[in-house]
Task: structure prediction
Amino acid sequence: RIMRPDDANIAGNVHGGTILKMIEEAGAIISTRHCNSQAGESCVAALARVERTDFLSPMCIGEVANVSAEITYTSRHSVEVQVNVMSENILTGAKKLTNKATLWYVPLSLKNVNKVLEVPPIQYARKEQEDEGKKRYEEQKLDRLETKQRNGDVILPVINPEPHTVGYSQSSLIHLVGPSDCTLLGFVHGGVTMKLMDEVAGIVAARHCKTNIVTASVDAINFHEKIKKGCVITVSGRMTFTSNKSMEIEVFVDADPFVDEPRERYRAVSAFFTYVSLSKEGKPLPVPQLLTETEDEKRRFEEGKGRYLQTKAKRQAQMQQAAQ
Amino acid sequence: RIMRPDDANIAGNVHGGTILKMIEEAGAIISTRHCNSQAGESCVAALARVERTDFLSPMCIGEVANVSAEITYTSRHSVEVQVNVMSENILTGAKKLTNKATLWYVPLSLKNVNKVLEVPPIQYARKEQEDEGKKRYEEQKLDRLETKQRNGDVILPVINPEPHTVGYSQSSLIHLVGPSDCTLLGFVHGGVTMKLMDEVAGIVAARHCKTNIVTASVDAINFHEKIKKGCVITVSGRMTFTSNKSMEIEVFVDADPFVDEPRERYRAVSAFFTYVSLSKEGKPLPVPQLLTETEDEKRRFEEGKGRYLQTKAKRQAQMQQAAQ
Amino acid sequence: RIMRPDDANIAGNVHGGTILKMIEEAGAIISTRHCNSQAGESCVAALARVERTDFLSPMCIGEVANVSAEITYTSRHSVEVQVNVMSENILTGAKKLTNKATLWYVPLSLKNVNKVLEVPPIQYARKEQEDEGKKRYEEQKLDRLETKQRNGDVILPVINPEPHTVGYSQSSLIHLVGPSDCTLLGFVHGGVTMKLMDEVAGIVAARHCKTNIVTASVDAINFHEKIKKGCVITVSGRMTFTSNKSMEIEVFVDADPFVDEPRERYRAVSAFFTYVSLSKEGKPLPVPQLLTETEDEKRRFEEGKGRYLQTKAKRQAQMQQAAQ
Result:
């Protein structure tokens, strides 16, 4: 589809959240189709996890987004989908790879939303494909267990914060879940949640550096808990780390099922977004350093630095591999 | 993409206007891409005409719309695009052809919106394809000239109208053209206009028969005049004819460029929409007869009857041909 | 236009904010058209004030909203517009008056947004109409001056609040102003701001009473400061008063022009919204009493009580007058 002014910031760069939403919609369609391809109970595929996603080049208003999706692995109860997004300038014909994302879906019964159904197995062209898929499956399973544990954190408000501190740029929004945000089962589409998360993370980044910013990458996101129609969701973001030219923002999604349900507010999703600041010519700009004040802020900064260095090392290893 | 509650009426049937908008977006992308495929001035393809379109089967919330487009003819200054829409139930795997539409686009220079550029010719697999395309091209050209003349009509309000008269169901809406309604050239997308026209026609139909209604077909629509960002558009509809099970509604679009331009309000588009009324089981229901009062209303009723009988005769001829 | 699922809450009642947005759009169109009706500099009418608006009856999904607007007074630099909203059930034909609103607009030059142009005078049918209009004009002018002074207040966050306290239900959201939120001059439509204000107020009300709630009325709103494209706006709401069956919520809108402008965050708008809680049958329900803790909260509660009693007295006077 053609990118509109509403999909972009005032510099004309399409929001990362718009792209994440398109990716998730493509993934939900292909995996729901696959899981219903055999006779048996009908189901809807629900997003369980998105692997780390890099935004390789910015997309602009007026360009056409081409989204293609393929199922690359199936376990007994989950489907791995690979989605590629190409941006196409239909005036010049130029095409660029914008995103490569890997998503995991789980089929939930239409009759009983708490029942996970079995996934019809796919055929692999080569035995190694299955083995590699299985390895990826085991890795993400482990990672999901880990993140389930570090979910208690809350973003506390700060009165009269200094510029460039954590409290200065932290932001949150509330959103009442409407019918168009939801699947047939009445639960929020993962893509809708990710779009709101990117919106908050982008505002945190812009408040910190006061320039034009774009999403550079999103760390793996796990969707532990479903969010129901009629909930109010609170999406909060705080900066955790800055390198010379990038900012890492942690985003929480909390759901408040306050109408006709006795349940407490709960943490539904959390993730790390990385943003860069761009000049008018599209070059990355230096970013003001984050000022950490409390012990917790300093600890989170060090953890963010660890993630940053790890990613950098991985990328260099890949480039060396590619050069050989 | 997946059909959402907002794309549909309260009975769950997707609005014809939503489908027309998707069709036009696909047509605009493929024809803009084609017209820029040769070196030369950049351009944007603008919708000039949509041929008569039938809605073969209703689409529902939760189904996926698959839209495919193909260029089927090029004249020196215009492109004919054929768009097919399939509705796919991803739970059952069932697919149905929903629409087959033919659209004509004209490439306008990005630098000078009043300059029509030349279209790169396409290759035809067989000589007959080119000849048939040329015939369709000549036919639509003639038809566009004709409609250009009957555009002076205005819908006047009626005080205390009786049920089932023309005045009783006639309706209009105004819309302020915003940035997301527009192409790169700052003119309203044809698809946006068609969606508003379908909305008004649907309200006219529902007011007349007070049941669940769906778009059955749209007569050829000619886009004589562009509509610019910042205009206010008035979309008005009145019923012109009823058969036993269908209603014909005439819709006008008038543009009011009241800011920063000295121009008068002008008629931008007009078209005939046909609606049917559906029972809860999806069966067509009888429709109350339209009560005509003035001479003009009687004349328009007869003209509508003429179009209805002509379409019916054409369809029977096609069915006989198919049966042979 | 037809009310869609996204225009309403999960009980099917259309959000007050959706209606306020339609009202403002109609007012902006009619007043911009009027102010450009004479030769001279082009302009866009900007919303300066909305008088107190009552929501007389709820509107539902599937109903058609009929909005009509009329210019009722012009001063040298401002236009008074009266807007009526009728809800029409197109299946039964039943029509109900939903809202009667009065709005004030000011024409701003398209070339220089800080220049207020002169308004072409309208003709009055009777001299008394002009005199009454002038009286309304003077009254609102006075009121605008007053509210300009009480704007310093800030909503501070509360840690671990008790149910039914002010801190428990207070809420805020952030919104990045996009192109579709703005007029031709690049400033946020008043209607967009009112819709966000109603969204926050509704969430505050729902958090307090945990039932289905609808907007009952909005006090006069003054738009002192324009909000520019690219700003982040923070909309915050807190409950100030509860009667047996109604809740009053104060809403602030602050604008943060953080990209490419040196300006500080400023208060753009503030207003009081009144909500009622409805049972499944549409009857008003009792509301839990607001627990006030600080001196400021107690003072605001008393002020809210004053407004409540004043409105009640006015309504009784009107009913007695109508009965005579």
Chain C is about 30% helix and 30% strand. The first helix of chain C runs from residue 16 to 35.
